[in-house]
Amino acid sequence: MCNFEKAPKPKTIAIDLDGTILEYDGWKGHSHFGKPLPGAREALQKLKEEGFVIIIWTTRGDREKVARYLKEQGIPFDYINENPYQPPDSSNKIYADYYVDDRAVEFKGDWQEVLKKVLR
């Protein structure tokens, strides 16, 4: 773990795996991975070129299996479900500058807008 207060922190992006980087049409087990979505590999490569730390943020528990599949597909990443730049004594929530998730609802200060999106 780095010294969070003093060390420079790179820009960090936490990206969900299924439905965001990989095709997803329902859970089919830990050994089933969808194909990379069009443009995902290139977008992650561009983020790497821009100096981002890429964290794969997934509910899948077998990090080694996920890492192996991503490497086989040529998808760049730095960490899976961890961030060594995490603030000390923080929770398990991955610290990032940006989060990308296919099920996310962006909060812009208006709970009525959130309800419209969630309850539609």
How would you describe what is shown here?
This protein has 120 residues and is an alpha/beta fold. It has a single domain, classed as Rossmann fold. The chain contains three helices and four strands, in the order E-H-E-H-E-E-H. It has a four-stranded parallel beta sheet with strand order 3-2-1-4, with helices on one face. Helix 1 links the parallel strand 1 and strand 2. The protein starts with 11 loop residues before the first strand and ends with a helix. The model has no long low-confidence stretch (mean pLDDT 91).
What tags apply to this protein structure?
120 residues; alpha/beta; 3 helices; 23% helix; 12% strand; hydrolase activity; HAD_sf; HAD-like_sf
